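Table S2 (continued). Query chain:
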Amino acid sequence: MDGYDYREYYVTRSIEALIADITLEHRAMWPAVQSVIRKHATWGEPTVMEGWSLWPEEVAELRLPSVRSLWFVADEQTLHERLVKAVEFHGGASDEEAMIAHYLGAVSGTTRD
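Corresponding output:
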C-alpha cells in the first residue's frame, strides 16, 4: 500500500473486497506464522502470540501438545465504540463514517468462531 492512504483503502473498497483482501493476507502469512509456532513449540519458553494472522481453526489443526490457544473476541458494539474513539486511526478519511463501517464490516466478516 506504498503511497496509498490506508483510510481511503477502507473508504473506497467494498466490505466484500476488504474481506477477500484480508483472507488473502491471512493465507499468505499463515505458512510463516505456522513455522514460528512449530519451532517455538519444540524449544521455546512459554509465549503469548496475538495477531491478525491467527485463526483459531488453523492453530487447532496444528495439534501440538505444547500449544494452547485462547481467543478473546469483542462484540461489535465494543469494537465500534473503540474505533470511534481512535481518531488517530480514522481521522482525516474523506468519509470517516464509511471508513468505520467498512472496517467493522470487514473485521466482522472475517471473524471465525
